[in-house]
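ok trying again, last paste got cut off:
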Amino acid sequence: MTISRQVREAMQGASWIRKMFTEGQRLKKQLGADQVADLALGNPVQEPPAALAERLRELAGAEPAGHHRYMANAGLASTRDAVAAHLARHTGVPYDAAQIVMSVGAGGGLNVLFKALLDPDDEVICLTPYFVEYRFYITNHGGRMVLVPTDARFRPDPAAIRAAITPRTRAVVVNSPNNPTGVVYDTADYDALARVLTEASEAQGRPVYLISDEPYRAITYDGVSVPWPVRQYRDTIHVTSFSKDLGLPGERIGYVAVNPATPDAEALTAALTFCNRVLGFVNAPALQQRLVEGLLDVHVDMAGYVAKRGRLLAALKAAGYELVAPEGAFYMFPRVPGGMDDVEFVGLCLEERLLVVPGSGFGTPGHFRMSYAVTDRDVELAVEALQRAADRARAAQA
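nice, full thing came through this time. structure:
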């Protein structure tokens, strides 16, 4: 075998999301795309806001000399200034450009961050259910992922996190609004986390970082607001992208922000900048940096997500599914009806021309994830298929 053992094993355990994508392509080719409800991927169908197109035309028309050259590895000064001012305004924390590193999406930002933080066998705590790529991002850089379950409402369990912390723990990753559950952590959650992490940091004599992965921050419902954990915990590192709030997943642009009050803020930001270079990103795309710096408070139209969320919640309730209603993002994570195995249930859904993802892929068996970043037709087909799948699952377990 010519490829490395580590990569070969990772490929064999690859994401259920990607497996369902492949299965969906096969089914759509066989039956026709308009006959399959594909709720497997979080690939936004909402188009970017009109202000983005205007900004893009403006940038394309200007084209001053040097627009496409290399820059500082941390990113364009004007973009980092704009991001720092945006964060300072919303958090009350006095960020400046020195604490901002522009990244190739949130995924690029997390890889840069783990490269900067982790020595071999250092540990990173992730809360289940968790975004499946975290495992690969952590092991890419010699670390070890430690999974800690959330409570029955998918909220952080401070006692479980405290019990999982060891002298090798370097960070805890939180993702709110959450993928796959749509849960939004509140201020009380972050207060409790801050107490646990402050205690652990004092015991270790070095920070245990709180890494807040927030690409869905702007996508919330029913007046829910997303707290800024940097207000509760000093050693917070904010990582995000513009993939979801501006509808730009294919453009790969995001940033990492280090709290200036963190004792090692200067050294950590320097390490992030170095790792941005040596991991081969070099710098985030120049055009995309200029694009987003003028759109930091602009977001996609939420009306479509609101309508699809409401339609699917009503359908799930009518069919007797149990779930925690999502407060943010564009996912739902219902319990599998009838106590059926989640992988078996996903296979049953496939027979009903419905593509969803088993909860096992997110570290939480017994559930399944469905995305409503999809077309109206996908939603209407899914409504009918969810009822049929529930009836079959309950009959099979009777």
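cool. The chain has two domains: 5-49+302-397, 70-293. DSSP finds 13 helices and twelve strands in the chain.
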